[in-house]
Amino acid sequence: MKKIGLIYSFNTNKTSQAAKKIAKEIGDQNISHVNAENITEKEFLKFDLIMLGVPTWFDGELPNYWDEFVPALEDMDLKGKTCAVFGNGDQKGYPENFVDGIGIMADLLESRGAKLAGFTSVEGYQFEGSKAVRGDQFTGLALDFENQGKEINSRIKNWVKQLRQELGI
Questions:
Q1: What totals of helices (H) and strands (E) does the chain contain, helices first?
Q2: Phi, psi angle pair for 106, to nearest 5°
Q3: What is the pTM of this model?
Q4: How many Å apart are CA 59 and CA 36, to the nearest integer?
Q5: Where are the chain's structural domains?
Q6: How far apart are CA 169 and CA 27, in angstroms?
Q7: Homologous superfamily in CATH for domain 4-167
Q8: What angle do CA 47, 52, 58 make, to 5 degrees?
Q9: Please, what sign has the CA dihedral across residues 111, 44, 53, 168?
Q10: Distance from first CA to last CA of the chain, Å, rounded?
Q11: Residues 6+ apart with CB under 8 A from 40
Q12: Percent of the chain scoring above 70 in pLDDT
């Protein structure tokens, strides 16, 4: 059984909600919940599959707790690690940088040698730009609680199903 780390801020409302739904869908007993605000390099590296909750703040920025961990990530060798990123954005309020946090984190993880999993279609979203887009896909699971709250559960369910197929979890 793969060690799965679900890393997100326990102090965020929407990201915590999404993380708990993801964990329930996978099966809570198979996941270690880790507070992103207290993560250490050693703890980050102990997982085979690292799932990161990365909301986008303000005009396309990472939350401060992820910003503080970026220097440690930049020094890590993530070869052999698989990462899946999910995050929240507001496609109507911030259409120029919808879920940029997902893209910023995905690029960083990949630059350190991690394999990314869980790309999702941009279909069904309306936004102007995003650092999380490659071709016609997001580099993770894009959620919009403000404008598409009714889609959250089905998107999470489909994403977990996709991860099961991609990664055998």
A1: 5, 9
A2: -60, -45
A3: 0.94
A4: 21
A5: 4-167
A6: 10
A7: Flavodoxin domain (3.40.50.360)
A8: 155
A9: positive
A10: 8
A11: none
A12: 99
